[in-house]
Automatic annotation (TrEMBL):
InterPro entries: Kinase-like_dom_sf (IPR011009), Prot_kinase_dom (IPR000719), Protein_kinase_ATP_BS (IPR017441), Ser/Thr_kinase_AS (IPR008271). The keyword Cell inner membrane does not apply. The keyword Nucleus does not apply. One of its GO terms (molecular function) is protein serine/threonine kinase activity. Transmembrane segments: none annotated. This is Serine/threonine-protein kinase PrkC. Residues 276-287 have a biased composition (Polar residues). PROSITE patterns: PROTEIN_KINASE_ATP, PROTEIN_KINASE_DOM, PROTEIN_KINASE_ST. Keywords: ATP-binding, Kinase, Nucleotide-binding, Transferase.
């Protein structure tokens, strides 16, 4: 495999990018967020006259060969995924010694959104999109390994997209002993160094649990789960059963992967106990699917 080349000499460490500064055709507008390795900026593409998000790894990462391999992996995984529920990588390259990944600009992360009220029907619509996106990654043998609300980005029209494949791996049937990921949503076996499709299912289940109940149960789970009554409110039994199964502490009792989880959810005709809500979800889903087919 070709390796990324580092250009130029020794760049300064972490030169801050200020509002108004230019990187090739991009003008920085503001800072959107910071994860462990990178800063994400909103910017304007001055050629296309469009707003974009630029993810720029801290310089100490883009100048070290180990982490360059990680960046290369993240970029190559994202470049091969093409799905409405996965944030699209539009470009990735060095600009003035900085490694820059370019994405469409979203409104906010799911984590930000969860601080305000969400209706049941919108939540279920988001959940179906999220499970569909992870199912697509699994179909392409990609383990995400860091599924959490910060890594889902909201777009207009009630669309939600999965991003941040910085810890993702292509499943090769062998176990990876590193225990990276975010502890809060991590499956117990992943914390022990054994990530699998089932551990992505677990993290996704916990994110869904949090969306519906406002809480995340602490492992080891003990009945009654905190917030479970709130979680159930307005949902059909079948839908709640799928969520419960996805967060079973025993990996073997969960869905094998997000494809199986999606199939179980998509089979449920009435996810909500309220028929008006069900009609709304069905309408949103079919609108979205038909606009996707047309695209
Ligand atoms: N395309 C985007 N549109 C809007 N906000 C974004 C976008 N991408 C990322 N963000 C914000 O930046 C944060 C960090 O982005 P992420 O890709 O997860 O980087 P990291 O690897 O540093 O966690 C996200 O949690 C989100 O708040
Ligand atoms: Mg992140």
């Amino acid at each position: 495999m070709a390796q990324l080349k580092i250009f130029g000499g020794q760049p300064e460490r972490n030169r801050p990018l200020r509002c108004g500064s230019r990187l090739d055709k991009y003008r920085i507008v503001g800072r959107l967020g910071e994860g462990g390795f990178a800063t994400v900026y909103s910017a304007v593409d001055l050629v296309e006259d469009r707003r974009v998000a630029l993810k720029i790894p801290d310089e100490r990462y883009s100048t070290n060969s180990q982490t360059l391999d990680d960046l290369q992996r993240e970029v190559r995984i994202m470049a091969k995924l093409d799905h409405p529920g996965v944030l699209q990588l539009k470009d990735a390259r060095f600009i003035d010694d900085r490694f820059v990944m370019v994405f469409p600009l979203g409104q906010e992360s799911l984590c930000d959104r969860l601080s305000r009220r969400l209706s049941r029907s919108t939540t279920v619509d988001y959940i179906l999109q999220m499970v569909d996106a992870v199912a697509y990654a699994h179909e392409n043998r990609v383990l995400h390994r860091d599924i959490k609300p910060e890594n889902f980005i909201l777009f207009p029209n009630y669309e939600i997209r999965l991003t941040d494949f910085g810890l993702a791996r292509v499943e090769q049937g062998t176990h990876d002993v590193s225990a990276s990921g975010t502890l809060g949503y991590m499956a117990p076996e992943q914390a022990m160094g054994h990530p699998s499709y089932r551990s992505d299912v677990f993290s996704l289940g916990l994110v869904i649990y949090r969306m519906l109940s406002g809480e995340i149960p602490d492992y080891p789970f003990e009945a009654p789960l905190p917030g479970f009554n709130r979680l159930r409110r307005g949902l059909s039994r079948e839908f709640v059963d799928v969520i419960r199964k996805s967060i079973d502490p025993a990996p073997k009792k969960r869905f094998r992967d997000a494809v199986a989880m999606y199939n179980a959810m998509a089979k449920i005709r009435y996810p909500l106990s309220d028929q008006t809500g069900n009609r709304k979800v069905a309408e949103q889903q079919s609108l979205r699917r038909s606009s996707r087919r047309a695209a």
